[in-house]
Each structure stands twice: as C-alpha cells, then as structure tokens.
Amino acid sequence: MDFLKLDFQKVVKEIVEFIQKIVGEKDVVVGLSGGLDSSVTSALLVKALGSERVQGLIMPTYFTPQEDIEDAIWLANHLGINYKVISIDRILDSYAESLKLNPEDEKYRMAFGNLRARIRMCLLYFYANLIGGLVAGTGDKSEILIGYYTKYGDGGVDFLPIAHLYKTQLRELAAYLDLPRRIYTKPSAPRLFPGHVALNELPVDYSKLDILLFNIFDEGLGIEEAAKRAELPIDIAVWVCRRYYETEHKRKMPPSLLEIKHLPPII
User: Fold this and answer.
1) How far apart are CA 163 and CA 11, in angstroms?
2) Is the pLDDT of residue 267 over 80?
3) CA-to-CA separations, 116 to 56, 112, 202, in angstroms, rounded
C-alpha cells in the first residue's frame, strides 16, 4: 500500500497549521474513547494548541470495555490535558423511561445506539459553550466516505482535523506520534450498543477497504478496476458506492429553499 504512505512530518505540520487557523484563540473540547481516531486527534490538538487549551471528555457506558476507559485516561494524562469522565447511562435511561421503550430490545437497538452518540455530542457542546470553545471532530476519511458515523452525533462537530486521512494511514501516523501500540492497533469499534464492532457491519477490514476507497475516490477508477486492484469482489465495490450515495445527506447541509442573493460588505 505504498500509495497510502505518508510524509509524516509534512502531514503533522499541515494539520497543526489547519487547527491553529480554524481555532484561533479559542479552546477546544474533544471526546476521548481510548481508540485510534480520538487519540491521534487529541495528540495533534495538543501539538497545535498546547495542553492547557484542550479539554477531554470520556463518556463511557456500562458496556464500554474497561481497557478503553483506562487508555483514554492514560492518554489524557500523557498529553497533560484536563479531562472529565461522565457516564451517559443515566442520561440514556431517562430517555428510555420517558419513551417507555427498552434499549435492549433488538428493534430499538440502533436508534438507542445513535442516541448515545447524540448524547455525547450534546455533552461536548455543553462544555464547549462553557468555555466559549470549539468541538473537535475525530472522523477519518474512511468513515466519512461511507457515512459510518451518526448524523448529529459524532458527525456533529466544528472542525475535522483528520478527515483527509484514511484509517490505515492513521494507524501509521499514531505510531509516528509515539502513541502506544495497544491503542493504534485496536480493531475499529463504535460501541454504540453491546458487542458493536465495525467488522460486524462493514464487508471487509479497513486494511483492504482503504485500498478500494483510494482507487475509487482518489484515483477515479471504475468499480470493476478498483475492485480488481484491491483484490476484492465486485460486490464490495458496489456496496461502497451505494453507501457513499445513500449517506450523502450526512456530508451536506439539509435541503432547503434558502437562497442568498446578496452578500453583505465585509467591514
């Protein structure tokens, strides 16, 4: 996968400058999960802004693996950022009680899973509001292209520092940033409900999926040639393209009849 290799020094410099430009003098709040994306994002935020301007929120549930919580706390201490641990179980339970629905019921599982992501978004913005800061997103290019995130959940952020990097590239970048191997080699797991891991929903691991995504979206190849180069069945390439178009609404403003005809002068 030489085409996915990075000039790490250049990439870090570009992201640091991007963060500094977008954030300005504000502070930033970021969700810490103990996983790859949030750990790399947090490390880059600290490089760009300094630890005193980054606040982390760890928002576990009753089924969050203890090692993920411990890794998130370790990272916050390692980076020297202030953090809070806030269980979201009671918040979700209050919704379930009001709705008179059981979150463990199979037919409500995904809806409550997405609700967990949206509760986390609300908490991030609550603390961002308190400090007049911004919420940093942790989504990567692989997830964004196939819409593998919750609309107005982990997709509800102010800026996305690593959105141009594939999951496979982030694992290498994490190693370059001296993050622990136990963090950057973890299998992708959104953890929106018990047992929720990416490979239960995606047709192939990111190590192969990223090659396919690169050939389709960066090289502009047709799905047959892209699948051939990625050594994957054509139906997976078809799945990727369908996912991209089906989730396009997540990457755009909501449809409306709004039309701005005149721009005000810049003062």
Assistant:
1) 12
2) no
3) 17, 6, 20
Instruction: State how far the Cα of 28 lies from the Cα of 133, in Å rounded to an integer.
Output: 5
Residue 1 pLDDT > 80 = no
Decide if 44 contacts 12 (C-beta within 8 A).
Answer: yes
pTM of the model: 0.95
Residue labelled with tokens 């890794």: 71
Q: Could you tell me which of 182, 74, 209, 61 has the C-alpha nearest to residue 123?
A: 61
pLDDT band of 3, cuts 50, 70, 90:
low
From CA 134, how far away is CA 22, in angstroms rounded? Answer: 9
Structure tokens belonging to residue 109: 């599982």
Tell me, what's the pLDDT at 166? Answer: 97
Q: What is the largest CA-CA distance in the chain?
A: 56
Residue with tokens 């393209």: 241
- Averaged confidence pLDDT in the chain: 95
Q: Which two tokens stand for residue 150?
A: 């919750």
Compute the distance between CA of residue 33 and CA of residue 189 in angstroms, rounded to an integer: 10
Confidence of residue 5 (pLDDT cuts 50, 70, 90): confident
Distance CA 58, CA 65 (A): 13
Q: Phi, psi at residue 29, to the nearest 5°?
A: -115, 135
Region of 195 please: left (phi>0), alpha (psi -120 to 50) or beta: left
Task: Give, for 18, the enclosing helix (H) or strand (E).
Answer: helix 8-23
For 64-115, give the DSSP string: S-HHHHHHHHHHHHHHT-EEEE---HHHHHHHHHHHT--TTSGGGHHHHHHH
Residue 55 dihedral angles phi and psi, to the nearest 5°: -120, 135
Residue 4 has a pLDDT of 76
Q: Which amino acid, residue 108?
A: Y
Whole-angstrom distance, CA of residue 243 vs CA of residue 149: 12
